[in-house]
Amino acid sequence: MHKILLTFLTCLFPIIGISQDRIPHSYIENPTVISVNKMAPRAAFFPFEDELKALNNTYETSANYQSLNGKWKFKLLENDTEVPVGFYLSTFDHTDWSLINVPANWEVEGFGTPIYTNDYYPFADTRERTKGYTEMSAPKPPFVPIKNNPVGLYFKEFDLNATHKYQDVILHIGAIKSAAFVYVNGKEVGYTQGSKVPSEFNISSYLKEGKNTVSFKVYRWSDASYLECQDFWRLSGIERDIFLITQHKVSIEDFGAITTLKNEYKDGSLALDITLNNSSNKTEKVSVNYQLFEGKVLDLIKKPVIEQLKELDIKGGASVHIKKQHIVKNAAIWSAEKPSLYTLLITVKKDNKIIQSTSERIGFRSAEIKDGLFLVNGKPIIVKGVNLHEHNAYTGHVVDEELMKKDIKLMKQLNINAIRTSHYPQPRKFYELCTEFGMYVVDEANIESHGMGYSLQKGKAISNNPSFEKAIVDRTRRMYERDKNYPCIVTWSLGNESGNGYNFYQSYNYLKSVTTIPVQYERAGLEWNTDIYCPMYAGHDWMEKYAKEYKDRPLIQCEYEHFMGNSGGGFEEYTALFDKYENLQGGYIWDWVDQGLHTTDKDGNAFLAYGADFGPKNVPSDGSFLANGIVDSDRNLKPSSLTVKKGYQNVKFKATDLSKGEFEMKNWYDFTSMDKFTVKAIVKAEGKIVHSFDAMHFTTAPHQTEKIRLPVKNLPKGKEYFIHFSVITNEADSFKPKGYTVASEQFTLPSEILYTSITPSTALILTETENVVLLSNKNVRFLFSKDAKTITSYRYKGIEYIHDNSGLTPSFWRALTCNDMGAYTWVKAKDWKVATQEFTIKEVKVSAKTESVYNVLVTYNLPAVNTTFAVQYTLFGDGVLQVNAKLNGMEKADKMPELLRVGMRMMLPKAFNNMIYFGRGPEENYSDRNWATDVDLYSKNTENVTIPFIRPQEMGNHTDIRWVAMKNKKGQGLLAVSNGTSLLNTNAMNYTDEALDAGKGGYNYPKNLRHDQRHPYQIKKVDFVQWHLDMIQEGVGGVNTWGARAMPKYMLDPSKEYEYAFTLIPFKKATTAQLFKMSKLKYSIDKKI
């Protein structure tokens, strides 16, 4: 077989341009050879030996199943010239080979280097920093490196189960990357590529009784790699389960159970197409019985909804089809909200004995484009989706059922209803779980050639390269054939970021010939070969423009809201657009999970690795650009996770008249009425519930609105009141307990806060020299140093509140977020960083208002930005310090440095690590990402604050702060109270901005700079508390991480004047109630000197 194919390929070389000196690579450098001897694609099902096992549908319980998972002998070689002759023979000496787990990626197992790149081909990365690593100067499909193309050799011995005798045996390889030769008992069986759908080989004729061997030769790079340029770890090996299937010579070769809805979406339609094959050389007489049961069936007691028996005579070597259309009246309908299912059981008998039985959970649902809208079961839904990569922080691309369930559970709890399988089909079990538990799926073909760009010129985009047409259509076909029976799939996707052209026209036409549900492709844009306009990272303005001007297709973003690092800004505005415009039907957030890999450094310190943490310094890498998850690598929620839950919640509230307690509640569920939930409302003041309303029960239909009126008048004056709505589940389900909050909202009620005026009478003594201003009495010490350019001592009753002379100083910078770095903010805003570090004192003026009240006006020059920052300290004799700060705007110009923050920070002694605050929390939040947090009373200890991102950056901020107190264990502390109309931003932690900052690096590294390849464990805590008391901080953004900034309303204008004030009140000991009381003190000046 090898020689025959080699001769054929040699003849083919002139056609596809492969030179004769590359013959050793003939299989892996010829895109028209995508397999040899591989079986045709088919649906995912298993041939059980009896009906009860078939209904249970657990492969491992069947005698027809033999797992080949486990320990294999393994050898990794630099390239195929090192492959020893006969390595696949049982007589070959494998004693010096290692053992490797299967399934596993060999790089994760310690063989070779894990490489992460976004859109570059690692074997042909042309960037300066990879010089000396890559063998190829540029990607040149279908060629791959000759020298630097690792080959993994696998070898395993196994005893053949007795049941395999006289039957057909199929070798099922769940996934193998990127190309592989298959050997059984020393003979070459075939060749495969296409790494994310199963490869199956009929190996019956290769087997023998007793001991057998199976072996693989796996190439890291092949022409298939040009179609697998996805934004994830570039890993290799056997990634999914590998097992043997035994089946009778007469068996179900394939079946389609395609469902939709008829008669105004009330009746279920089942198109059944069963193919039986007789691999023997004689005619066989069999019967086929298929039954459809409602619900999950584990026995045969229940009466079937449909049952049909068919007698067949099948000639040797022939196949027959059974095709039948069935209607189920008033069917139970499947949706992500109500995943109602039926069980299809197909049984083949010979001589009245079962020779094969299989089952499938199917659901009746429809998915279509109608009148320019995407409809599921006749209803225009909002896709509240997320992109999902196949990732496990310990095993790379090997994901088990337990982790899949965990993902779906978390998604359900965050109100996510849809998944895009970016950018390849997931394992079989994933679709079964989405079908069972209810999750809409966009199933995407394993095609991405981002590294080739999108140009249709010759030698550019693979989308228009004729030699790749067969591979592209085959990948699409194999995806469809395996997954065609899963009702969770409501859209097919042609692939990702591969340009558009002839090859994708063909794959689109193929899918439209076999399916009625929509087909999408992002790179098609508004061309004809996509049923859904599915752009990625479209901004808010463009989406609104589309909604108004384009009506033929819905807009559903295939990727949006890039959750890299401290991100998630602007999500509120996206979801508002989905609610406002019917043809803006949601999107898929990028993405679900950070792709960190657990490892250790040379000293044994454990950490989560990202790109360039492995291998030599010049290894191709895009750094931490793989960490874009709503959840972290271990599936822990991140600070921004609840923003998704809030934005995707299906019950929303609106205040129509707060003074009268009038509200509207809208049920945004598509198929669920409000009788599944209880609505609760409470009124809180100063962190305590002051009134609880009776639980409310509604039967509000989907997409309908309910008016709510609650008595909120006559609340006692003197406090700020908030009304809080929560929607909780009445019953538990697979993912949410009874009483789980699926939606919530908070409103500030009209109220009048009463303040108490204080006139301090304790005199202060002024001592002023050329360098210092000292104000003091027996209880108070305030020392401003002109040399230090700040307050170096602030003491009350013997308690010092300033660490190491580091009092309040101007702050206009933040530790750069990933979005900041992607937009080159380290260049655009660098002048403000300099201004934060290199300010000078212009003048210090001291004036007495009374004997007990002094003003110290400090004006700072900010040479880097050519403006000034003025701070007036007003010290009262009882130790209270009012701070009024003003940043004067820069002179307006076309180009001004980007301003990230307006505020001040100081360093507190380490003991003051207990933070109590009244503002938004408990999760950190920012101006464009705070709507999922409520104003309430919260506390935390700075010692417990950890870095929540895989790469250190700005973190820990809280907005809308009324007051914040820092206390020590004795209860002594310092209270900061917002003055005026501007509420505070605050942040307290045992890290400094400087330590968290990325310096001048970016995720795509400037030339020759390996920048800050840093991780949280490397950032050491300091022995003091950094405390920010800011007026405002720029939003974190979220549209993308390669240039977009926060929405304009969340940006700062450096030409504008910013002024704010706060009061610092020292205390010896104070309860929470006393802190609230202190926050309402207003200091006045009774008598001027």
TrEMBL record:
Catalysed reaction equations from the record: Hydrolysis of terminal non-reducing beta-D-galactose residues in beta-D-galactosides
Protein name per the record: beta-galactosidase
GO cellular component: beta-galactosidase complex
MF GO annotations: beta-galactosidase activity; carbohydrate binding
Beta galactosidase small chain/ domain mapped to chain residues: 774-1065
InterPro entries associated with the record: B-gal_small/dom_5, Bact_Beta-galactosidase, Beta-gal/glucu_dom_sf, Gal_mutarotase_sf_dom, Galactose-bd-like_sf, GH, GH-type_carb-bd, Glyco_hydro_2
Keywords: Calcium, Glycosidase, Hydrolase
Gene Ontology biological process terms, A to Z: lactose catabolic process
Subunit structure: Monomer.
Entry similarity comment: Belongs to the glycosyl hydrolase 2 family.
Cofactor: Ca(2+)
Superkingdom of origin: Bacteria
Listed EC numbers: 3.2.1.23
